């Protein structure tokens, strides 16, 4: 296909997320027009395995007729109506199904337009509740370096990826950042147990120093996703929750990436990490990427604190509970259940993780880490895990280019490649994917 015109329209008119200004108007982005199962087709008609799963979101894979039908049928019946003073039955059903699958008493679902707005709504709800409880000074949100919670002003304010914070103003007057929880960077001779202890002390000290009466919440991704698939030490989340409970600090689990099967369960908080948070934020796999939607799940306990008061939670979106998005979400959920996709992930993930860790044999690979169907390969040209040389900055992009030539798309993040394929990937396809990734890394060495 000749893409000359569309490439020019793309470069002239389409401002992309995280648009780099140095190459503005001269980008050579891959065009993706068609996709089926775990494969995408680029502008040249080449078939590539979708290593990143879109953006961690295409759980059930591409091109599902049943999804297209459900969404089309809903659009025919009711494409949209205002959620402010009206409702629709498909969104109500979807809310009930989410509540049924969520941990503990997270029975209240606030629908949003994506992950950033789910986090934004969670933070605004926390402020709202504290204001109503007569403690307006309890506002600080403890978060972590390398966290990514979204791109609205408030969600970006609690996000801790340094490069993202360089050029934009931040609403971080409420944010307090804890140091990196990546065990790779623990001190010389420090055991994992000692590192874990240090991280728990970091959290508790922060609360004590700032004052528990000023700290409203702790927000954490179960696994820091865009920060480079950082898996905190075992027991970390449970211990953090205990600290939060001791000081009346709410625990917000940002499951925008980890929910809906990425770790083999509907939600990872309880089933994988053994915690029942006060709030869960989710999006992405919520609709398998077929429609933009997010959700903030709030506990009975928190809702009971605000219910019956003479106040309005003045937060919401034209498209909260959008019927077509809800149809996509419900149908995706039905497919995950009917096809046993959660069980499938639990079966295939050990193979994925074994092949991932096997890449550490390659000279420039300085770390491999992951869980479920999430993985990261970190590289450095001098083989030093601590260095991110200027020359290392484009290793991820070079590996991606080499892999694309061989039939695999990966997600490069500076000196890392992140993998999170559609959850329907078979064991054979996992092998194909890692065979190509290995070749791509060696070619980029
Ligand atoms: N939270 C986490 C953990 C994410 O990874 C992301 C996006 O990658 C977001 C929030 C923001 O979601 P969205 O891009 O749908 O607004």
Automatic annotation (TrEMBL):
Its cofactor is pyridoxal 5'-phosphate. The keyword Repeat does not apply. Pfam families: Aminotran_3 (PF00202). Keywords: Aminotransferase, Pyridoxal phosphate, Transferase. Belongs to the class-III pyridoxal-phosphate-dependent aminotransferase family. It comes from Shimia aestuarii. PROSITE patterns: AA_TRANSFER_CLASS_3. InterPro entries: Aminotrans_3, Aminotrans_3_PPA_site, PyrdxlP-dep_Trfase, PyrdxlP-dep_Trfase_major, PyrdxlP-dep_Trfase_small. Gene3D superfamilies: Aspartate Aminotransferase, domain 1, Type I PLP-dependent aspartate aminotransferase-like (Major domain). GO terms for molecular function: pyridoxal phosphate binding; transaminase activity. This is Adenosylmethionine-8-amino-7-oxononanoate aminotransferase.
């Amino acid at each position: 296909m000749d893409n000359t015109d569309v490439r020019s329209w793309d470069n002239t008119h389409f401002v992309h997320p995280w648009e780099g200004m140095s190459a503005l108007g001269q980008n050579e982005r891959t065009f993706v027009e068609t996709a089926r199962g775990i494969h995408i087709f680029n502008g040249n008609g080449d078939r590539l395995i979708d290593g990143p799963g879109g953006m961690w979101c295409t759980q059930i894979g591409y091109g599902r007729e049943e999804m297209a039908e459900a969404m089309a049928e809903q659009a025919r019946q009711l494409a949209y109506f205002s959620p402010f003073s009206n409702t629709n039955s498909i969104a109500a059903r979807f809310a009930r199904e989410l509540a049924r699958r969520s941990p503990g008493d997270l029975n209240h679902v606030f629908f949003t337009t994506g992950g950033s707005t789910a986090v934004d709504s969670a933070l605004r709800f926390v402020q709202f509740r504290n204001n109503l409880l007569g403690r307006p000074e309890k506002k600080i949100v403890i978060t972590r370096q390398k966290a990514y919670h979204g791109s609205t002003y408030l969600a970006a304010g609690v996000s801790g990826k340094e490069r993202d914070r360089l050029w934009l103003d931040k609403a971080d007057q409420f944010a307090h950042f804890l140091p990196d929880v990546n065990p790779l960077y623990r001190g010389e001779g420090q055991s994992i147990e000692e590192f874990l202890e240090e991280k728990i002390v970091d959290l508790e000290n922060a609360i004590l120093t700032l004052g528990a009466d000023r700290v409203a919440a702790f927000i954490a991704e179960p696994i820091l996703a865009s920060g480079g698939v950082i898996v905190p030490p075992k027991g970390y989340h449970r211990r953090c929750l205990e600290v939060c409970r001791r000081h009346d600090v709410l625990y917000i689990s940002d499951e925008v990436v980890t929910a809906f099967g990425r770790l083999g369960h509907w939600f990872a908080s309880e089933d994988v990490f053994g915690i029942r948070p006060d709030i869960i934020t989710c999006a992405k796999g919520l609709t398998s990427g077929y429609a933009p939607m997010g959700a903030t799940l709030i506990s009975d306990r928190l809702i009971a604190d605000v219910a019956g008061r003479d106040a309005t939670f003045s937060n919401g979106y034209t498209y909260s509970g959008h019927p077509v998005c809800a149809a996509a979400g419900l149908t995706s959920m039905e497919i995950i259940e009917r096809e046993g996709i959660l069980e499938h992930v639990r079966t295939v993930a050990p193979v994925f993780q074994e092949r991932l860790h096997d890449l550490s044999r390659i000279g420039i690979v300085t770390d491999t880490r992951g869980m479920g169907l999430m993985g990261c390969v970190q590289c450095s040209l001098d083989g030093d895990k601590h260095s991110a040389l200027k020359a290392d900055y484009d290793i991820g992009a070079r590996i991606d280019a080499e892999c694309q030539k061989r039939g695999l798309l990966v997600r490069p993040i500076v000196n890392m490649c992140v993998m999170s394929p559609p959850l329907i990937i078979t064991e054979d396809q996992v092998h194909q994917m890692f065979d190509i990734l290995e070749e791509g890394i060696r070619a980029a060495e």
